[in-house]
Amino acid sequence: MCAAVYVLSTVTGYVLTSALLMKCPNILHRRKREPFLSKHISHRGGAGENLENTMAAFKHAVDLGTDMLELDCHLTKDEQVVVSHDASLLRASGINAHISDMTYAELPPYLCKLGVTFQRECFCEGGEDKRIPLLKDVFEAFPHTPVNIDIKVNDDRLIKKVSEMVVNYDRENLTVWGNASNKIVNKCYTENPRIPVLFSLFRVLQLLGLFYTGLLPFVPLKEQFLEIPMPSIITKIKGPDRLTRSQRLIAWLADTLLMRKTLFQHLTARGIQVYIWVLNDEEDFQRAFDLGATGVMTDFPTRLKEFLDLNGISKPR
């Protein structure tokens, strides 16, 4: 009897303490400093309105007033940091070669027409700008715009060069970097802990485990940004008729586990921004902000801007 009372009182105390700290995390953790806040994030510069990862796309998004540019980086044979999503040039340039095997001068231009990954049966036709840009071109053209850098390959030279460039352009307070790979994120953090990092996939799974066991409020977190997909959009990208029953079940389960308002509120209270990607219609924009997301990443920056303006969602301070 005494043992049962002890166990019950311990569990009750744990649950109540966890619930309190979940709602008021600053009792235990100092709120992280937020060098910038982003509601409007342009994925690959806005891949649905201009050719992805081009200077034309980035300029269009910045002119619209985007709060952040999201882009991807690779290293060429002559060790130039270029902005491109794929390691292979086949999809974007029609050349069966890898960026790492060519010098920057040898890189071909983008194709005139590219598919939009997160919008079903959608293609974007480009204008005159089809050049693969250098990361330094982006930094020089948009010195005051936050940039979200996806380090696409586990290459120590790439990580070091991006870090050096961020420092040289005085952008440690305007940059976030990382990758789904935990190894890459750890290397980024080790190379320069002053540049905020994203949660890797492994760390997202850890985060969910801590959240659902009630341990999250007790655990310190080094990351400052959580970027996660909204799993339910898979039915819009693929089409519900093209998904098997098991695929629909997995998407529903992942959506149920990830899209938790309590989790987002806890993280934002700790100064950790929550971005949801890649959303391209008003229904998903609305759901993301209703759940408490800090920002939305989109291929269509004009659509998102119109939604924010129409709904009176204030710009970050």
UniProtKB/TrEMBL annotation:
- UniProt record similarity statement: Belongs to the glycerophosphoryl diester phosphodiesterase family.
- Name the Pfam families on file: GDPD (PF03009)
In this protein, which residues make up the domain named GP-PDE?
38-308
| InterPro entries recorded | GDPD-Related, GP_PDE_dom, PLC-like_Pdiesterase_TIM-brl
What lineage does the source organism belong to? Eukaryota, Metazoa, Chordata, Craniata, Vertebrata
Looking at the UniProt record for this protein, which Gene Ontology cellular component terms does it annotate, in alphabetical order? endoplasmic reticulum membrane
Q: In its keyword annotation, does this UniProt entry include Endoplasmic reticulum? A: no
Among PROSITE patterns, the record links this protein to: GP_PDE (PS51704)
Molecular function (GO) terms for this protein are:
phosphatidylcholine lysophospholipase activity; phosphoric diester hydrolase activity
What PANTHER family is this protein classified in?
A: LYSOPHOSPHOLIPASE D GDPD1, PHOSPHATIDYLGLYCEROL PHOSPHOLIPASE C
Q: Where in the cell is it found?
A: Membrane
Q: Which reaction does it catalyse?
A: N-(5Z,8Z,11Z,14Z-eicosatetraenoyl)-1-(9Z-octadecenoyl)-sn-glycero-3-phosphoethanolamine + H2O = N-(5Z,8Z,11Z,14Z-eicosatetraenoyl)-ethanolamine + 1-(9Z-octadecenoyl)-sn-glycero-3-phosphate + H(+); 1-O-(1Z-octadecenyl)-sn-glycero-3-phospho-N-hexadecanoyl-ethanolamine + H2O = 1-O-(1Z-octadecenyl)-sn-glycero-3-phosphate + N-hexadecanoylethanolamine + H(+); N,1-di-(9Z-octadecenoyl)-sn-glycero-3-phosphoethanolamine + H2O = N-(9Z-octadecenoyl) ethanolamine + 1-(9Z-octadecenoyl)-sn-glycero-3-phosphate + H(+); 1-O-hexadecyl-sn-glycero-3-phosphocholine + H2O = 1-O-hexadecyl-sn-glycero-3-phosphate + choline + H(+)
Membrane spanning residue stretches: 6-24, 197-219
Record-given protein name: Lysophospholipase D GDPD1 isoform X1
Q: Which UniProt keywords apply?
A: Hydrolase, Lipid metabolism, Membrane, Transmembrane, Transmembrane helix
Which terms does the UniProt entry file under GO BP?
A: glycerophospholipid catabolic process; N-acylethanolamine metabolic process
